[in-house]
Every structure is written in C-alpha cells, then in structure tokens.
Amino acid sequence: MAQATHDAHSYVPPAEVEEMELYHAKTWIGKYVWSQDAKVIAVQYSVTAIAIGLVALVLSVLMRLQLGWPNSFSIIDPSSYLQFVTMHGMIMVIYLLTALFLGGFGNYLIPLMCGARDMVFPYLNMVSYWVYLAAVLILVASFFVPGGSTGAGWTLYPPQAISPGTPGTEWGILLMLISLALFIIGFTMGGLNYVVTVLQARTRGMSLMRLPLTVWGIFMATVLALLAFPALFVSAIMMTLDRLLGTSFFMPAMVSLGDQTSYDNGSPVLFQHLFWFFGHPEVYIVALPAFGIVSDLLSTHARKAIFGYRMMVWAIVAIGALSFVVWAHHMYVSGMNPYFGFFFATTTLIIAVPTAIKVYNWVLTLWRGNIRLNVPMMFAIGFIFTFINGGLTGLFLGNVTVDLPLSDTYFVIAHFHMVMAVSPILVVFGAIYHWYPKVTGRMLDDRLGKIHFWLTFLGTYAIYYPMHYLGFQGLPRRYFSYGETAFMSDSAQDLNMAISIAAICVAFAQLFFLYNLVVSYFRGKPASDNPWEATTLEWQTSKTPPEHGNFGPDLPLVYRWAYDYSLPGATQDYIPQNVSPDDPIVTGEDPTIEASSATAPENPS
Amino acid sequence: MTAVLVFLGCLMAGIVWWLIRQTINVKPWVADTSAEAPQTYALAGPGSLQGVPSVKVGLGVFLAVATSLFALFLSAYDIRMEISDWRPLREPDLLWFNTALLVLGSIALQWGWTNAKKGNETQRNRGLIAGGIFALGFIIGQLMAWQELNAAGLTISGNPANAFFYTLTALHGLHLLGGLVAWAKTANRVWRGAQPAAINLGVELCTLYWHYLLVIWLILFGLMLST
Q: What is the mean pLDDT of residues A5-20?
C-alpha cells in the first residue's frame, strides 16, 4: 500500500472518540486511596501484589531450608511445610502474577497505550482493586486462624483438601475458597474494563493492528481470564458446599480416620476437570501479557520493528483459543481413557507452533538490531533463554508416555518454574525497569539493576537446572523429607543443599531490587518524558508522571504503528505513533524551515 | 465438558471472525497522513463497535462471562449425573408458575423498551416497573419452592440432584438480584426525572439482561425437568 494522498497541511478534525467525563477527586484520599484513576489503581495493584509476592518468596525460602538441611529447623514441621507449598503456589500464580500483569500493567498501560483518558468504567475499576485487596487480606488471615492455612497443595484436590488429616481443613481451606471467589469477582470487574476500554476507547487512528503488542497480550489474557476464572469459581462454590453443607459434588464415599463419612459418590476427577479448565488457561493468562510486554521491550531497545507483527498478533489469538483444549494434559495420571490422552497430547504439541513462532520472531527482532543492552533489555533477553528452556521441557511432559514416569517429580517443578514463574517474572522486572521512569518520573539505578539481573538470572538457573536431574531420579515433589530411599542417590541430598543455597541467594538478590525501587523514588535521576526514545503513546504525554486524564487538552492522533524504529530517511531512529508522515523528523527535511507544519495536527489552519 | 466447549468454540469462532474482518489485508507498518485513513477500520469500518455505548458492550462481555459460568455448571451437572448415586429430583410445580412470572417480566420490559424507542415515556415506565415486580415475584416464588422441597425432606445434602437444584437456582437468583440493582437505579432515574436518553439506555440494558436470564432459566429448568 502506498502512502497515498499526502497532504502536508491536511487538517485532522478533533477526535470523534467520545471525550469521557473524568471524576475529579477533591481530597488527597479521593486522589490516592479511593482513586478512580487507572494509573493510581495500577500502582495500588502492583504494590499489593508485590507485597504478597514477597510473603510467597519467604515461604519458598522456608521450604528450601527444610529441603536443603532436613529437620534442622524447629519452626518447620510436615504440616507447616505443606502449608508453605500451598500458599507459595497459590499466591505466586494468582495473587502476584495475575494481579500484577492484568491489574498492575493492564491498568497502567491500556489507557495510555490506546490513547484513552482512563478506563471506561473508572468506578468499577476502583471497586475491583478493593475487592482484590479484601481477597488478599482474607488469604493472609488464613495464616492466623486455628489450624492455619490450607496445606492441600495449590491445586486443592478433593477429597484430601477438606478431609481431616490435611492441614487447615477447619478454616484454612474455607478462607482460601472465599478469597479465591472474591478475587474472581474483583477480577471480573477489572477485566470488563480492560476489554471494553481496548474495544471502545482507543484514540483516533489507533486501529487494532496499530496497538502495541503489550495491549494485545493483556487484552487476550483478559479474555481468557474472564472465560476461565468461572471454572475456578464453580469449583470453589461446589467445594465450599461440600465442606459446609455436606453435599457430595466432589467428595466420594469414604472412611476417614476410621469413620464412614456422610459423603456419597462425589467425583474428585470432576474437580480436576474444572480446576484445570481454569488452570491451563491460567498459564497463558500469565504468559500472554509477558509475551506482549517482552515484544515491546525487545523492539524498543533493539531499535528495530518487531519481526512479523501480524503473525505475533495471530499467535497470541491462536494460543488463547488453543489454551482451552489442552487442560487434561495435567491429568494424565488420573486414569483417563488413552484416546483422551492422545487427543490432549496432540493439542498440547500444536500449541507449541504459535509459541515457537513468537520465539523465532523475538530472536529475529534482535537480529541486526541496534541493541542497547540496558537493564530492561537484559531481562527481556534473559526471558527468551528461560522461556525456551522451560518450553522445551514442556514438550517432554506433554507426551503421555514421558509424562507418566515424570509426573509429580522435581522435573515438573523445574519445568513449570522455568516456563511460568521465572520467565514471566523476568518480564515483570524488565517491565518495571522500563516503565518506572514514566510512573515515578525518576530512573532506576542502572548498576543495581544489572547486579539484580545477573544474580536473579544465573541464580534461577542454579536452582532449576539441577531439579531436572532430581526429577529424572524420581524425586517426588511435595515431600517434607526423603529419609532413606533406595532410588535416590546420596548426591541428591548434596544437590538439594546446593539448590537451597542458590535459592537463598536469589531471594536476597531481590533486596537490590527493592532498595532500588524505594531509594530511586526519592533520589533517582530525574527522567525525561521519553528516556528510552520509544514510540508508544504513553511516552508522548506532556507530563511525567502523566496527570489524571493522561493527555493534554486533545487526545493524540495516531498515524502509524508502534514499531517505527530506524526508519530510513528519518532524522531520528524512532517515530512516535502520533507523528504524521509529513513531519520533518520523518521526511528528513530541515525542521527549522517546516517548523510550523510540524505541529499541524495541533494547530489546524 | 461438552456444554462449555461448545460455548467457547462458538465464542472463539466469533472473536476470530470479527478480528479477521478488522485485520485482514491491513498493513500495519504503513503510516497514514491523516487519522481518517482507511487503515483506521477499527473505529469506523465493518464490524466496528463505534456508536454502541460502552455500557452495552460491557454488558455483552459480562453476559459472555456469565454464560461461561452457567455452561461450566451444566458440564459439571452432566458429568455428575452419570454417577450411580444420582436420584432425579421431582421439581415442585410452583416452578411453572415462577417461569410464567419470568416470561411476563421479559415481555413487560420488552414492551417498555419498544415504547421507549417510540418516545412513549409513560408506557416505557410502566413496562420497566412491571418487569421489576415480576422478577421480584419470581425470586419470592423460587424461595417458596425451596421451602416446599425442604419441608418434603429434600435437603441440599440429600442427593447430588438436590444439591445442583439448590445451587443452580441460587446462582440464577443471585444474577437476577444483581439485575434488580441495575433496575432499581434505572427506576430511580425515572423517579428523579433524568434525561430520557439515560433512562432509555437503562431500560434497554435491563431488557437484554432479563431476556438473557429467561433463556438461561429455560435451559436450566428444561435440563432439570428432563433428568
């Protein structure tokens, strides 16, 4: 398509996108506590998610202490170990990653990147955060109730999740289920906002195919979450009824501690179906925003257009759609029909195709790019390595015959931590280093960032690489201690100790990050409006941090996609989305001569 | 899991079809001289949502979420009823009366909305109020049906069929209660004499939601009667 009908002075009329009426808070509390500004809500979400994530990090260190030096710590007994395992998993997957990517980055970036003033339903958005906070507080409360939090494993499989003998069957499991239900209700409020904002509130010229991939990733992940979280909601309701009112949705007839329970022939496998119908899309709810964000980081810091933009968009859509037909690959050992297993193995391997396309495109984006190896870029490249590693072990586990012996071993732990824990968290770090200047107006310290990157990146490899080997040996997961076992070599314990040391180092390395976040907020180098020389709209705001309403009196007009880096003939190596093709920085003409026409969109003649 | 897969399959097909119309043959790397250029299809091209109020799109998205929820319950129902301890429940006859109330509620709101489009405000308000009252009647009727079952000893823990009956009716009732909150807000706007456009939008959204919950109820009721 040619750049037809050039008219340097063509007047573009004001936005037809309806201007929204913003709620202007008058008090400090209205602005920063009961705020309806998506950017403030984003920070609230992020701070809460990171705070609860730190709790989960401490839990993982406690687990590693027990595994590295068995029975040396009196505070860790078998029950508390299982509670740590459960809470670590649930917090990290749902309350940290989901909330941070969608509630945090989604709230901050969707309106800014789409060129909107705010989310379309700001009040609902505010309620969404407070419901999320309530869910987090209820979850935290479960640590302190009689019997402690639930120790059923993050999958909460019945019957053991609500049968005597499992930690936290009195209160812990109930609080967990209530907290999850609240989280889902809160998320649905936020999710409606994210989807409708992307659909309805884009500024003029921002067609779907001009959206930055970050928005695509978050948008598709939100669609998945809106459709998949109901499965968790349904299972939470049904399990609550089993626990409280004695229904038998999931609970089978069984003898517990010598007594026949009152339950009938409930189906634990039904729970597994429902849980994984949510659980597998959940992987992509976390991964798709990471995919989108990392695409933008790579493109920006390699000064090169993302390779295969359209393919990237369609890969996101394809992964999203396919993620609903692979759930039973988590249930190969539940005794399913072999034909089912074959079906789910096939769909699982098919989903590798769009995923591999994305990986190729990231690598090809780097190819002959003008790479600026700053901190966000290092995390983004680190993500590619880690994601490939974790993705490849997924091919093993996706096959029924390979999965059966590896099921419930440390190989599985290594796989999913590489692919959906370390990979997304590297993107989270990269994204925070990237957008922190916009959020706070100050740069994060570069040297601390690099130390943080190398310790985290190499450290996580030191943790998870050896776990593959332990998994091959058959070391089962979720065991408090291994004692004397025939199949386990003596060196396995040495390896466990080494892993624990690495884990403790990585945990402490996060202090560099936290210190950097706090100190830079007060003493960091002041950031310019567009420190990374990026093209997307959030960097084109007149103020940093952007004010309530994001843009000045007029919404930006969009003339191009988000990836015009190193355009031939242009005077600078990036062309923001709101720069017209007639602008001197694009045409390469002397800006002093054409100074008046450069601002044509803002000054209609 | 057939019910939910069929629903998601249709939904995904719809999303993909819509996206193809938005994105086919678009060359994102080509810049335009004006924001009015043909590339900006998404705002004014085929399949665009321009002109549709955001609240209505929001309601549409919410209905997709709710459908996912009910479809999952139906899938669970389908799997659970195959197990030997399932003893079919004989639903109280009162449910037929309740169903009639829900149908009347939908008709009343539809009538109100039709009148709203004609600018006939009095009739519109009557339709709106009647729709809400019928829905309230339906919820009271459902509670009476619960009492009737409970009195007959058919408690929630008695049998999985009972458990599903109570759970599904409660879930449907809660959705209707949520709708009544929106209905009350619209009724309050009528009371305060708000702008006709704002009231009409409220009436339209209530009508859509009432129709949706009627369809869901007919599916649930039909399923429970037939099994």
A: 45
Is pLDDT larger for residue A204 or for residue A373? A373
Q: How far is CA B40 from the centre of its chain?
A: 33
Question: DSSP string of A479-503?
Answer: -S---S-SSS-THHHHHHHHHHHHH
Q: Which of A275, A268, A284 is nearest to A323 (CA)?
A: A284
Whether the CB of A481 is below 8 Å from some CB of chain B: the reply is no
DSSP A323-350: GGG-GGGG-GGG---HHHHHHHHHHHHH
Least confident of A188-192, A281-285, A484-488, A507-511: A484-488
**Cα–Cα distance measured from residue A439 to residue A517, given in angstroms and rounded to the nearest whole number:** 12
- A196's enclosing H/E stretch is helix A172-200
What are the tokens at A166? 């499992």
Per DSSP, helices labelled H in A478-594 are 491-523, 584-587
Query: Given an 8 Å threshold on Cβ–Cβ distance, is A324 in contact with B32?
Result: no
**């690495």: which residue's tokens?**
A502
pLDDT for position B51:
75
Question: What are the tens digits of pLDDT across the range B101-137?
Answer: 999 999 999 999 999 999 999 999 999 999 999 999 9
In angstroms, how far is CA B136 from the centroid of its own chain? Answer: 16
B41 to chain A: nearest residue by CA?
A: A207
Interface of B with A in 139-158 (CB under 8 A): 156-157
Q: Chain A: give the shortest CA distance to residue B130, in Å.
A: 28
B195 touches chain A (CB under 8 A): no
Q: From the centroid of its chain, how far is CA A506?
A: 20
**Is omega for the bond preceding A576 within 30 degrees of 0, making it cis?**
no
Amino acid letter, residue B198: A
Contact yes or no for B69 and A234 at CB 8 A: yes
Contact check, Cβ <8 Å, B72/A241: no
Burial environment of residue B83 by CB neighbours within 10 A (0 to 12, 13 to 18, 19 or more): middle
Residue A96 per-residue DSSP state? I
pLDDT tens track for A433-454 = 999 999 999 999 999 999 999 9
For A19, the token pair is 């201007």
Is B148 buried (19+), middle (13-18) or exposed (0-12) by CB count in 10 A? middle
* Sequence-separated (6 or more) residues with CB below 8 Å from residue A336: A328
Instruction: Write out chain B residues lying below 8 Å of A196, CB-based.
Output: 54, 57-58, 61
Residues on chain B touching A581 (C-beta within 8 angstroms): 31-33
Q: What is the ipTM of this complex?
A: 0.93
A343 to A336, A346, A347: CA distances (angstroms): 11, 5, 6
Task: Determine the distance in angstroms separating the CA of B122 from the nearest CA of chain A, rounded to an integer.
Answer: 30
Please check whether residue A151 is in contact with residue A85, taking contact to mean a CB–CB distance below 8 angstroms.
yes
- Total Cβ atoms within 10 A of residue B223: 16
- A430 to chain B, closest Cα gap in Å: 26
Give the Cα separation of A485 and A523 in Å (integer). Answer: 55
Q: Hey, what are B90's tokens?
A: 């004989």
Query: Using CB atoms, which residue from B23, B65, B75 is nearest to A208?
Result: B23
The answer to whether the CB atoms of A581 and B33 lie below 8 A apart is yes
> CA-CA distances (angstroms) from residue B57 to A111, B17, B132, B205, B211?
17, 17, 23, 10, 16
Structure tokens at A181: 């239900």
Judged against a pLDDT cut of 50, whether residue A383 lies above it is answered with yes
Q: Does A328 touch chain B (CB under 8 A)?
A: no
Q: From the CA of B74, how many Å to the nearest CA of chain A?
A: 10
Q: What is the mean pLDDT of residues B56-60?
A: 95
